[in-house]
Design a protein that fits this description.
Blueprint (H helix, E strand, L loop, with lengths): L3 E14 L2 E14 L3 E5 L6 H8 L7 E6 L2 E2 L5 H11 E5 L10 H12 L3 H14 L15 H13 L5 E5 L7 H18 L3 E5 L2 H6 L2 E6 L2 E4 L1
Length: about 230
C-alpha cells in the first residue's frame, strides 16, 4: 500500500485584506504519495504557494487537517512544528535564501548544524551532496560569487542533504533563464528517480509542469483539475 507523505482534508486559508476576506484556499482535498513528483500549477493568486506553505508549516490553515509523514500539523506547537520542518522537510525558494556571508559548503552545512550533527560528518555530507550536484569546485564560494543557477543548486543541496521525506520548491525557476531552468529540472528529475525524493513544486512555468509526474491545477483557491 502506497503511503501518503502529504494529506490535506478540507483545508481552507482566509486572509484579511483591508478588512475584506480573501479566500486563498477553499476546502482543498489533496494528497502526495511517497516518491511522486507533483506540480501545483495555476496563475498568480490561485492558491498554489499558499497550499505549499501550509503543507510546509510556514503558515497555518483556518480549517481542515494536514498530515506530513503521518504527523498532524494542526496538533503541533510552534517548537514541534519547527522540528518537523528541520528534520522532515526540505525547502527550495525562488529567492534561494542562502546566507550571504557563508560559503556554499557552509550554507549546505547550516541545517545539519541546527540538527546537532558533528563538524566532521557535516563537512563530509555537504561536500558529497555538492559533488553529486556538480558543485564541489564551488564549495568555497559565497552566494554573491555564483550565478543564479549555481545558487539554486546550492539551495537544493542544502534542502536534500538531511534526506528529508519531502522536498518543497516554490517557483524554483522564477529567477532562471530557460537553459538554466532545464538543467535545474533535469536535476530534480534525477533526484526523484534515482534517490526517490518526493517533490512538490508550486509553479506557473510550463517547463516545470512538464517534468512533473502529476499536475494539480488550482484556480481561486480550489483544485479544478489533475
Amino acid at each position: 500500500m502506497t503511503q501518503h507523505v502529504v494529506e490535506c482534508q478540507g483545508v481552507s486559508r482566509t486572509y484579511q485584506d483591508d478588512a475584506v476576506p480573501v479566500h486563498a484556499l477553499r476546502d482543498v482535498d489533496f494528497a502526495v504519495d511517497s516518491g511522486e513528483f507533483v506540480s501545483l500549477a495555476g496563475p498568480s493568486g490561485s492558491g498554489k504557494s499558499t497550499l505549499l506553505h501550509v503543507i510546509g508549516g510556514l503558515d497555518r490553515p483556518n480549517a481542515g487537517a494536514i498530515t506530513v509523514d503521518g504527523e498532524d500539523i494542526n496538533a503541533l506547537g510552534d517548537s514541534e512544528l519547527a522540528d518537523l520542518r528541520l528534520n522532515k522537510i526540505g525547502f527550495v525558494f525562488q529567492a534561494y535564501n542562502l546566507i550571504p556571508v557563508l560559503s556554499a559548503q557552509e550554507n549546505v552545512e547550516f541545517i545539519m548544524q541546527l540538527q546537532g550533527i558533528d563538524a566532521a560528518e557535516r563537512g563530509d555530507r555537504a561536500l558529497g551532496t555538492l559533488d553529486s550536484l556538480g558543485m564541489r569546485d564551488l564549495a568555497d564560494r559565497r552566494p554573491g560569487e555564483m550565478s543564479g543557477g549555481q545558487q539554486q543548486r546550492v539551495a537544493i543541496a542544502r534542502a536534500i542533504v538531511t534526506n528529508p521525506v519531502l522536498l518543497l520548491a516554490d517557483e524554483p525557476s522564477a529567477n532562471l533563464d530557460t537553459g538554466t531552468t532545464g538543467e535545474l529540472l533535469e536535476l530534480l528529475k534525477r533526484l526523484n528517480k534515482e534517490r526517490g525524493v518526493t517533490i512538490l513544486t508550486a509553479t506557473h512555468d510550463p517547463m516545470v509542469m512538464g517534468y512533473a509526474s502529476r499536475q494539480v491545477h488550482l484556480r481561486d483557491g480550489e483544485i479544478v483539475s489533475e
